[in-house]
Amino acid sequence: MSDEVCRLPLAEVAAKIRAKELSALEVARACVQRAERLQSTLTLFISLDAERALASARAADADAAAGRWRGPLHGVPVAHKDQFYRRGRIVSCGSRLRADFRPGYTATLLERLDAAGAVDLGGLNMSEFACNPYGLNVLVGRARNPWNPDFIAGGSSSGSAAAVAAAAVFGSFGSDTGGSVRLPAAICGVVGLLPTNGRISRHGMMPLSFSLDNAGPLARTARDCARLLACVAGHDPLDPASSARPAEDYEAGLARPLRGRRIAVPKRHYYEHCSAEVRTALSKSLAVFERGGAALVEVEVPDPRPLDALGNVLILAEAATIHAPLLRARAADYTPLVRSRIEFGFSFSAQQYIEALNLRASRLATFVETVFARADALHLPMLAHAVPSMAEVEAGFAGQTDLSFNLAANTRSINYLGLPSLAMPCGSSANGLPIAFQLVGAPFAEATLLNLGHQYEQAAGAAPLPPLP
Amino acid sequence: MQVEAAVASRIDSVLAAHGVRLDARQAAAMLEENRRYGALLSELVATLRFEDEPGFFRLALDAATDAKR
Lengths: 469, 69
Prior knowledge:
The complex is a heterodimer of chains A (469) and B (69).
Chain A: H1 3-6, H2 10-18, H3 24-42, E1 45-48, H4 50-65, E2 77-81, H5 108-115, E3 119-124, E4 144-145, E5 148-152, H6 158-165, E6 171-175, H7 182-188, E7 191-194, E8 215-219, H8 222-232, E9 262-266, H9 276-291, E10 295-299, H10 304-330, H11 336-343, H12 350-371, E11 377-381, H13 390-397, H14 412-417, E12 421-428, E13 434-441, H15 446-460
Parallel strand pairs in A: 2-3, 2-6, 9-10, 9-11
Antiparallel strand pairs in A: 1-3, 4-5, 6-8, 7-8, 7-12, 11-13, 12-13
Chain B: H1 2-17, H2 24-45, H3 57-68
């Protein structure tokens, strides 16, 4: 089986399996072989479960032969950040503290993907406890960027983005508390969706911040993200914070043309912080929407910096609460970077934490009134500068250079507001690494964002894949 | 100054309860960060009404969607 099959979009390989042009087993074998071959250079997986994946693919083929169609992911190989619990499998959460952790139950998200017919290849690389945007991992080493292994893959869902970009799997899920789906998606040049807070159940997903945690899909096209989202969205009684609002058929509206759509463009606070090459790529992406018939509307967007800071109070205070027992018992098993970040959460008073929670609803109302009364989506940068190399990040840690920008500067404020956001690749920097924009939507406007993303791809062309063997 | 000392003392006791020991430089940095967050929160909280409560975020998401429609 050629590696070309692995490079197909998810929806296309699903259609070929459905039409019996490809068997689930041959597709799974191709992905497993590719993942095994790339592991030594890219470190995509923490645990690659080839045996289980191939058995699952054989079962999918047997079901297809018997006329039993499981769902829209029947026989499609996927894999997910190693923090979604599967009963009996080691789920490391990227930490020495969970190196032998076998959960006694399976995450709702994985159960729904299983029910849709997906073939799960295993646990993908991630930042330790989802706590850094660089993808640093103490167990197996960091996932490397498929565009250039010397560069970061982003984080914390590093393997989820790198494995999709490297065509080792057709789609994946990660978690996004401050940007952890969108950042690695942008850095590896794939599509990543942060859904509205509560759109996807977090039952069985390692918690970092119960107020801001979300699961989100990564794939090579907006349609593929729509397919993955539709399979898992919807209320789950096991996650009381999940929304009762019914899930939608997110693929149904993808074909709606851009004409009549309005894209908000911020007057301040975002583009002026971007490098010249990033600004140029962002302008070109806006021109694609405009040529397609969408109207661009300048809006005064609230300053994201206070929202970013409020989000940080919630994340750190909640992470400190969640990690307190482990920190007391096994502090030495955390790396200093992660430990010091979590420990900072102990310094907030109860009053400060509640104030940060208290402000969330009113900030959301202001943001929605300001932006979405006038537009369908807000166009924002992802990274303001070119993707940094690992050497640049390490020099920043050592204080030798100023990293000069906060990777999550354009993402965490959106988590604080609980809004959906779709990261889309839109070109590359002089260093050959991807550039991306994000489209932020009103609450539960995932279908609108995916429609806009799909129409962008139709007009601009699908993002290229890295030239890997 | 008394308030800052009280905040520093509270942070010290909370950290100690969790087995965290900071050197003087780390402690000063944490206190400064906490002071910065405190100032920001004070400024923003001034925009809230007395009756605004936490815990309504889920309702706020739904209300925002409906308002937009």
